[in-house]
Structure formats: structure tokens, C-alpha cells
Amino acid sequence: MRSATLAALAQTGCSTLPSAHHDHVDAHVHLWSSDTHRYPLAPGFGLKDMVPRSFTAHDLFAQCRPNGVGRVVLIQMSFYHFDNRYLLESIAHHPDVFRGVAIVDETKANLHDTVKTLTSQGVRGFRVYSEPEQVATWPHSAGMKKLWTYAADRNLTLCLLTEPDALPGVHRMCQAYPHTRVAIDHFARIGMKSPIRRKSVDELCRLAECPHTYVKTSAFYALGAKKAPYTDLGPMIHRLRDAYGASRLMWGSDCPFQLQDGQTYANSIALIRDRLPFLTAEDKQWMLGGTAAKVFFA
């Protein structure tokens, strides 16, 4: 009876805590192909931007599978811009493993149809570049208003690549669209360009007031000391856990960038799994898979 009940809960998305070793979910990975003829780069990008030259599903599996990661959220790569084909083809080849976060042009008249088509192909969210000057335009942008509305209507997630100075504007937008689910990428890049400042962490924690806001604890290689074991990020993660609860935090490697300059995939996941004693076993289950499964795979 218990097994049947758990199976039923899993089918409805109510049981999202991972239980098996390979149930970890990486909430943030980029893939791209070396074939720039088939998948041309967007204007303004060149081969110099493709570092490494390619990062395919095969390359990813060599990293994630030995570390117990069985499912992955793919984030559209910047140099493909609105051409989501490689993302969609990767999902189609591994439909049980991948879900996608695409990039769309919110100014286009066919935005609704584009969103509908992409979601039918495994896309569960949209990446939005969210620098302060961009966020300042959102309340007056018809396209952005539509995107935030469509996301709420279709149970999709807007993944914001933002920074500390933009957080007040992001907060206002989340308050204006309280039913839109938002995931803040990479701790809002706190500690990337400057030391980790309490004021910035305070602002990120205030976003927890908006109940559909999540944070990706990701891109450890780029923040704070920028080197393993990354335990200097522990106090910020502790505060976020207390503000949001672990069920609104999700770990992401930000591969392949996590693999550069001697950094490793294993060290990224180990920070959450092994190195922060304030995280409970249940916290780790949520952060290493349960939250991302609930948001992107349910």
C-alpha cells in the first residue's frame, strides 16, 4: 500500500524529494556544439567566445553521472541568443534527463505562440537578462509584462541573470506579478565583482517575501574566494536557507564553466552534500534535487 501511495504521489508531482543516488538534479548547465555552420552564433559573438570549443551531452554525462546527477536543467547559451534549436534537440535526444530554459524575444507579436511551442518541446522556463538598466524598463515594457503573465499562466519559471544592484527592481516586479515563479541565478552574482556584502545578501533574502521566488545556489567557481572548497560561501547559503527554506533553493553547477582553471564538478556538488554542517539531510535532498524536480520536472 505504501509503495502504491508513493508512486501515485510521484506521478502527481507531490513527491519531489530525491531518494536514490542518481536522483540529484543539476539546475544549471549550458550545452553547445562546435558546429557553427549548423548552429551559427548570434551577431556580436565569435569563436573566441566558445570556451571550451564545445560542451555536449556526452561531455556533461562524463561529469555528472559519477557524481550521482541523473537529471539536468539546460540553460540556453548566450551566443545562440533566440535560436534555441540546440537546446531543443538535446532535450529531444534525452527527454527523461533534460528540461530546458530558453531565451525568447519578448518584443515579438507572436510571443504567446512561441512560448506555447517551446513548452511543448520540454522548455519549462525562460532566461531573462536582468542588469539594473534592463530591470528599470520592465514596468513600462509591454513585452515583459506579457512574458511575466504568460509564465504565471503556464506554470513556467523566469530565470533571472541579475546582480545585486538590480534586486530592488526585481523585488518590485515580483510584487507586481505575485503568481509568476522566478529563479535568481547564481545568488544574483553576489561576490562576483566585489566581496560578499551584507547589504546585498539582505536584499536577496528580502525577495523571500515573494512566495514564488527561488534562488539557485550555483556558480561557486565565480563567487567569493572563487576556489574550492567554496566554504566561504557557507554564511550566505546559511542565511538563504533560513530566509527561503531549502525547498526554494536549488544547486546548479553552471557547467562547463565550473570545469575551468582546475575547478571540478565534484567540488561543486560536494559543497552542498558534504561541507556545510548546518544543512540537514532534508535540506540537502531539496537543494540537490527536490527543488529543481518540483520546479522543472513536475
Summary, kept brief:
The chain is an alpha/beta fold. The protein has eleven helices and eight strands.
| Number of extended strands | 8
Q: What strand order characterises the main sheet?
A: 1-2-3-4-5-6-7-8
Could you tell me how far the N terminus lies from the C terminus, measured between alpha carbons in angstroms?
Answer: 23 Å
Amount of beta strand: 15-25%
Question: How many domains?
Answer: 1
- What proportion of the residues is helical, as a percent range? 25-40%
> At the third CATH level, what is the topology name?
TIM Barrel
Architecture, CATH level 2?
Answer: Alpha-Beta Barrel
Radius of gyration, rounded?
18 Å
Q: Shape from CA axes?
A: globular
Largest sheet: 8 strands, parallel
Q: What does the oligomeric state look like here? A: single chain
User: What's the tally of helices?
Assistant: 11
- H and E order: HEHEHEHEHHEHEHEHEHH
Structural class: alpha/beta
Mean of all residue-level pLDDT scores: 94
- The CATH homologous superfamily: Metal-dependent hydrolases
Unreliable stretches covering 5 or more consecutive residues: 1-16
How does this structure look, described?
The chain has 298 residues and is an alpha/beta fold. It has one domain: Alpha-Beta Barrel (TIM Barrel). Helix content is 37%, strand content 15%. Strands 1-2-3-4-5-6-7-8 form an eight-stranded parallel beta sheet. Strand 6, helix 8 and strand 7 form a beta-alpha-beta unit. Helix 8 packs parallel to helix 9. The radius of gyration is 18 Å and the shape is globular.
